């Protein structure tokens, strides 16, 4: 039986998780066996606590810390020349999004993490030492991105059928001018439905918890970026082949649901293969010919 997270020591756990994650990602990729921080986590927190409460705290921090800057940019007008749409959301719209997100994260995301732990444990999730080799981590995360994009594409297309769009997916499209935090603003049913695309890879491979945390952070940063509403010279789509980015997904939000296309979450090849990016490519070609943005 796993230990229930009663009287969980948030004040010690919360900053420590991020020190461990940042230290092990940015300082070294060799992952030595005797990492003091890892030993501390394992000694003071159960695997259940690390995999559920710990994952929730890391997700929330990565999401809100990366998502709030786009609200600041909209309100302040900084970098306005890089804003994809000239329209901006109101302060009331920002508040509505944030309050709804907190409700959904606490009432949907957290319970799902708690309930799904036994399944992940059964599939091989572990938090013990030694840490996996960096080649294992990189290969697993690449696999997760490819699989997630494939599953998300088809799930997203299904959500754009008439009935599901009207009753479920239209919530996400309330924001025709997206900003970072709108990436997870959705109907609870959609959170569960498309959330499957994110967890199916880790569920199949049973990764180390460090790999799961790294995947979670990267996936959050990716979805926040594509919903940011800004396309900068340093945006990933300018450097990463096949990466969609903010311009690609912003088009999806500002079109009618029957004509939007661009259903993929990360890459562009699924939309290209199935012809669901034709409207976007025509628009980009027109912009290039006329020398202005639409």
Label this structure with key terms.
294 residues, mainly alpha
Order of helices and strands: HHHHHHHHHHH
Q: How would you state the average pLDDT, rounded?
A: 88
Query: How big a fraction of the residues is strand?
Result: under 5%
Count of runs of 4 or more consecutive helical residues = 11
CA-based gyration radius = 20 Å
Our measurement of the CA-to-CA distance between the termini, rounded to an integer number of angstroms, reads 58 Å
Shape: globular
Number of strands: 0
Secondary structure topology:
Blueprint: H1 10-27, H2 36-44, H3 47-76, H4 91-122, H5 134-159, H6 162-167, H7 188-205, H8 209-226, H9 245-254, H10 269-273, H11 278-290
Q: Any overview of this molecule?
A:
With 294 residues, the protein is mostly helical. The chain is globular, with a radius of gyration of 20 Å. 36% of the residues are buried. The N terminus is likely disordered.
Summarize the structure.
With about 290 residues, this protein is mostly helical. About 65% of the residues lie in helices and about 0% in strands.
């Amino acid at each position: 039986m796993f230990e229930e997270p009663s009287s969980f020591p948030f004040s010690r756990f919360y900053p420590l998780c991020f020190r461990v994650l940042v230290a092990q990602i940015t300082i070294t990729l060799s992952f030595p066996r005797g990492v003091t921080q890892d030993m501390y986590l394992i000694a003071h927190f159960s695997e259940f606590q690390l995999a559920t409460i710990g994952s929730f705290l890391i997700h929330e921090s990565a999401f809100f810390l990366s998502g709030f800057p786009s609200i600041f940019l909209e309100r302040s007008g900084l970098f306005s020349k890089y804003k994809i749409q000239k329209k901006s959301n109101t302060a009331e719209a920002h508040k509505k999004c944030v309050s709804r997100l907190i409700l959904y994260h606490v009432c949907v995301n957290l319970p799902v993490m708690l309930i799904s732990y036994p399944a992940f444990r059964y599939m091989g999730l572990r938090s013990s030492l030694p840490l996996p080799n960096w080649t294992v981590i990189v290969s697993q995360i690449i696999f997760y991105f490819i699989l997630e994009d494939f599953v998300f594409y088809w799930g997203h297309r299904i959500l754009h059928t008439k009935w599901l769009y009207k009753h479920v997916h239209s919530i996400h499209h309330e924001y025709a001018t997206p900003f970072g935090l709108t990436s997870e603003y959705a109907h609870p049913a959609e959170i569960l439905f498309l959330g499957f695309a994110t967890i199916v890879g880790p569920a199949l491979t049973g990764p180390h918890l460090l790999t799961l945390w790294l995947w979670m952070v990267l996936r959050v940063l990716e979805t926040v970026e594509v919903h940011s509403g800004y396309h900068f010279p340093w945006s990933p789509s300018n450097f990463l082949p096949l990466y969609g980015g903010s311009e690609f997904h912003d088009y999806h939000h500002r079109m009618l649901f029957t004509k939007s296309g661009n259903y993929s979450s990360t890459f562009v090849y699924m939309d290209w293969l199935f012809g669901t990016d034709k409207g976007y490519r025509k628009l980009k070609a027109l912009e290039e010919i006329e020398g202005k943005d639409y």
